[in-house]
Amino acid sequence: MGILRQLLFGKYLLITNTVSCGLMMAAGDVIQQRSEYWKKYSHKYFPTSVIAASPEDEETTAIISSTSMYGHDYARTRNMTVVGLIQGPFHHWFYTILDRVLPGRSAKLIVKKTLLDQSIASPTCLAIFFVGLGILEHCKSEEICKELKLKLKIRWIKGCLLLDV
Ligand SMILES: *[C@@H]1O[C@H](CO)[C@@H](O)[C@H](O)[C@H]1NC(C)=O
């Protein structure tokens, strides 16, 4: 119990938050990759038409079935995990400071905390996400900036509207 308490509330909380953030990013990416695969190839499992009209069609079918085996992109999951491990400490410190600056759970405080969360934590996390992935993909910094501005805006607006999709 001692260790668990320390992991969840004590001096190891930073490590717990960092590791869990990394693991959640990894799990999220695994689910996302499977779902992308499923969306792309579900027609293979539920074919709407089984008639091959021309030899060309047969060829495409053969190509699809040979390339449609699920192959996990481990590099992508690893990159996501790395980004999660960087976001972890930020989350940890942000919410620790937030609780110190605004202790309490009254409705007014919750509104304030939510506003600070949306205006500071959310854009910072998105920046870590896109810049981190950009660096991992060896993009030029100009490209990162352009991509960052565009994606940040879209994601942040979606986040504010609670459209986390
Ligand atoms: C992941 O990182 C590696 C190494 O930095 C990079 O070569 C690769 O393009 C990245 N892959 C994705 C999908 O981001």
State the helix count.
Answer: 6
Unreliable segments (pLDDT under 50, ≥5 consecutive)? none
**Bound ions, cofactors and other small molecules, one mention each:** 2-acetamido-2-deoxy-beta-D-glucopyranose
Task: Assign a percent range to the helix content.
Answer: over 70%
What gross morphology would you assign? globular
Number of DSSP-assigned strands: 0
Gap from first CA to last CA: 37 Å
Radius of gyration, taken over Cα atoms and rounded to an integer in Å: 22 Å
Mean pLDDT: 84
Class based on secondary structure composition and strand pairing: mainly alpha
Number of domains: 1
- Largest sheet at a glance? none
The H/E string reads HHHHHH
DSSP strand content:
under 5%
Family: Belongs to the peroxisomal membrane protein PXMP2/4 family.
Keywords: Membrane, Signal, Transmembrane, Transmembrane helix
Protein name: Mpv17-like protein 2
Signal peptide: 1-22
